[in-house]
Amino acid sequence: MPRARSQQVSLQDTPYCHCTFLCREYAVFVGRFYVEKIRFLVQALSTAVAGLKSVCYS
Rounded to an integer, what distance in angstroms lies between the CA atom of residue 31 and that of residue 55? Predict the structure, then answer.
């Protein structure tokens, strides 16, 4: 059930909680970015290695 406006917690009363939430969301976003970047690099490296194997062993 919603609280009365006079009983709601404001941003000024709890800046730490809001900052923690935003920092955590940012960390999750950055983490996902790096996971995708690493995944791309691994795929590119494995493609390059496969290409070198085909040249060296043919």
Answer: 36
